[in-house]
Design a protein that fits this description.
Shape: elongated
Order of helices and strands: HHHHHHEEEHEHEH
Oligomer: single chain
CATH superfamily of the largest domain: Ribonuclease H-like superfamily/Ribonuclease H
Helix content: 40-55%
Number of helices: 9
Strand order of the largest sheet: 3-2-1-4-5
Distance between the termini: 47 Å
Structural class: alpha/beta
Largest sheet: 5 strands, mixed
Strand content: 15-25%
CATH class of the largest domain: Alpha Beta
CATH architecture of the largest domain: 2-Layer Sandwich
CATH topology of the largest domain: Nucleotidyltransferase, domain 5
Number of domains: 2
Amino acid sequence: MLQAFANIPDSRSAHGQRHSLPALLALCVIALLSGKQNLTQIQRFAKDHPEVLEALGNKRPKRWVPVTTTLSTTLGMVRLGDLQEALADWFYGLFASARAQERNAVAAVDGKTSRAAGVHVLNVFVIALQQAVWQVAVGEKANEITALRQTLTALFEKYPFLQILTGDAMFAGNPLCSEIIQRGRHYLFQVKCDQHHLFENSTWCLRGA
């Protein structure tokens, strides 16, 4: 993880730095994966787990605990695109180590709304990793289908071994499904009874299977 974050530009002043940028970002990711939800909880996590700080290169983990202002200021200086790219590289490494690329990796797509931030995002959750590896903000004038269509190229370029996308009935539309097939991938989306023509056609096709 530290290696993945090493290429993110650090615009902080070098004077008085106790924590490297990769170490701070890695701490935040580890704390979030441990269920922490805000900067105060991340600071508490760091204080309660000096072994994590030590593993991240902190030479005095019991005394040099990053405070919330340090975390907030540092995160505010990092470009979201740089962070997403670094996380994608890290997840790619997890795939490689898990040899997930040797099988048809399946990812579930689903929209979620953060109550705290009031932001609606589309998540791509890889089943083999049990982790969301891709996240796209859904604008006020857009929807999850549009967001997914706009990110398909970048998603498959970053994770070429993703072969199957699953999702609920809202994704079962011809334009999106056609684009997935055109990119050499497959899909498995739900179909509901109120999607009359699609449901009837699907039932007819599967009747003789």
